Amino acid sequence: MLKNEIIKFFTTTKWVVYFSIIAAITIITSVFLNLGGAQTENLYVYFYKYTCNTNIYIIPIMIAIIVSDIFTDDYISGNLKFFNIYLSKISIFINKLFMIFIVTLFLIFSSGIILTIVYLIIKGEDYAILKNEIYMIVNLNLTLFVGMLPVIFIYVLISVKFDNSMIISIATFILLIAIDYFFRAYYDITPISILRDFILISTNKYVLPSDKFHILLLLIYILILFPVALKSFSKKEMIY
């Protein structure tokens, strides 16, 4: 089923639409707003600042739309009842979850490639000079993905519970940002705080006590949200 999900996504205009959106946002924010400061920073610092200023907000909003599409579209169209003939609900859930991971990584690295091209055009540096920074940038992107997992699992749970999950997921993410902004000094335990801290972890040579706390918090979120979402999906009727 994962193969079918991949084919369905990458053989339609969906991936073109999502790539175009992330490309447009990346170009507009990096060139016109210059959020990374390409003229004065090296590529990794440019990446880091851009990720902190833009990607931790833009990509989760796009993922809300994608999760809703992956989980809700087949349910509304009635396709899930056919999948359930030869696959268990657990298998369907896991395959859809892996597809979400694949699309999330696709968006993160698409933004990264575009940002690199923009940086090279603005700064005019030779690619060979930047080879030493590529590993750190890949690490930063993977860390961003891991830090985003609690948000993804919240979206999955919402998509399993509600038919109009896209609007609810986006509203939930905005609410999480607001809670993090107003209560950060008192309760640094929101998924947004985990996302911010995981980006910082990628820059540290050693794991700090605060990093250990957020790593533990991330595992707690996953260990709670994953089985709850899976159980809810297992109980869901496959006929819309």
TrEMBL record:
<feature type="transmembrane region" description="Helical">
    <location>
        <begin position="213"/>
        <end position="230"/>
    </location>
</feature>
<feature type="transmembrane region" description="Helical">
    <location>
        <begin position="165"/>
        <end position="183"/>
    </location>
</feature>
<feature type="transmembrane region" description="Helical">
    <location>
        <begin position="97"/>
        <end position="122"/>
    </location>
</feature>
<keyword id="KW-1133">Transmembrane helix</keyword>
<feature type="transmembrane region" description="Helical">
    <location>
        <begin position="56"/>
        <end position="76"/>
    </location>
</feature>
<feature type="transmembrane region" description="Helical">
    <location>
        <begin position="134"/>
        <end position="158"/>
    </location>
</feature>
<keyword id="KW-0472">Membrane</keyword>
<keyword id="KW-0812">Transmembrane</keyword>
<feature type="transmembrane region" description="Helical">
    <location>
        <begin position="15"/>
        <end position="36"/>
    </location>
</feature>
<protein>
    <recommendedName>
        <fullName>ABC-2 family transporter protein</fullName>
    </recommendedName>
</protein>
